[in-house]
Design a protein that fits this description.
CATH superfamily: Lumazine/riboflavin synthase
Strand order of the largest sheet: 2-1-3-4
CATH architecture: 3-Layer(aba) Sandwich
Strand content: 15-25%
Number of domains: 1
Number of helices: 5
Structural class: alpha/beta
Amino acid sequence: MAKVIEGIISGRGKKFAIALSRTNEFVTRRLLDGALDTLKRHEVAEDDVTVVYCPGSFELPPVAKRLASAGGFDGVICLGAVIRGDTPHFQYIAAEVAKGVAAVAFEAAVPVVFGVLTTDTLEQAVERAGSKAGNKGREAALATLELVDLYGKLGGKGK
């Protein structure tokens, strides 16, 4: 039988950073609430979570990079919302944020998770931030919890 390695979802004794975009704060605040509730439910102490606000989603990757490389955090969660408007601005921002967070995650020794909504409408964003489609902040927190445990089992320090 194959050897199976998988992470468990528990945050006891772990420290987390959440990089949060102020843009579309009506939505991002709901993502934050979902992430914080999830961390708490999985035994992460309130004092072990640091929330860092940044101006917009475009600034999430460099903030996440600093948080991941600072040491002291077991995982970094990036939360934001990019909502399509009437100009091509959406396409550039959404693509660069996704690429940026992915690049940071690839280089970091700790998990860096993408919890940024990219939607066509405000209604879609609200649905994904705690309404019909669940809460993507919650999902990002769950993924981070699992990855922290998995990284610990895999060993190594990343790049």
